[in-house]
């Protein structure tokens, strides 16, 4: 068996093994084991052998011929992965179980940008100070009347001669684009021309019912001023057409505040699809993990989390207990501070180079003594 393993090895050398006896201080015979290997170097495809190393005293247990040859075969099998020559010390370390191959760990920090020449800007980008805010329009920044949306759909159904949509269907199409709601939920038509015509007519009915009167929600204007003071980029997302959205922004006096505006024409689908928020983050040139979405419905929370963004819910038309899935719930935006936003943006995940937490393995004592569901002493009874 030793001869067959030695024949398959590229080295082709057998270790010289022997022993001799020596006397210690107590005049007792003590055997010492010696193992001698020739020095072999890999240079290209050629193998060069030099003079043997001096004798080396091995203090470990005796290594058999088979194990010595197996160690050499292992080093030959993995030698092509190493850039440098194989070390000749033959001291094999303990395997720690950590895969040290390049490119696996640590993961690439997506928040980092090596193209930035200013080290302070690069440090701020990697820290929690680099964040963007994505706002919804109605019910977050301005006052919203949900009944007007329902009345617009009911009026459109009467004009088109369609069946009146029930209340649960109207709740389902909240936040969707008009074309998406007509084609996928109401199932009134599949023709692109008809979808566009009915969607435009529905929006005209809504604007006529609304009357063009816009009013800030309590605390929203002050919070936007705080974001502008700290130079936080702000994006506006809405399923309304752009012309009506720009008219509302001009009527309320918020021109030049939003760095990015995403309207119904810019996306294919509305909520709960995260397309709007992902596109807004791309226009802001921010990664999704550093974007915070401000909405007022569970559809917004679902879409923001699907886009790997944090979400702050504003309890304007829903009570606080219904918005528990959000990362933070407030009644008014002025309850927030810039510190709250930085705490949400300071994510701890693999994208930013932090190691994932390892789950604790249950001890044997935990299996033998399961925890009691009632914490009352038995002597009490």
From TrEMBL:
It holds the Pfam family HAD_2. Signal peptide: none annotated. Residues 354-364 have a biased composition (Acidic residues). InterPro entries: HAD-like_sf (IPR036412), HAD-SF_hydro_IA (IPR006439), HAD_2 (IPR041492), HAD_sf (IPR023214), PGP-like_dom2 (IPR023198). Residues 352-381 are annotated as: Disordered. NCBIfam families: HAD-SF-IA-v3 (TIGR01509). PANTHER family: 5-AMINO-6-(5-PHOSPHO-D-RIBITYLAMINO)URACIL PHOSPHATASE, CHLOROPLASTIC (PTHR47108). This is 5-amino-6-(5-phospho-D-ribitylamino)uracil phosphatase, chloroplastic. It comes from Sesamum angolense.
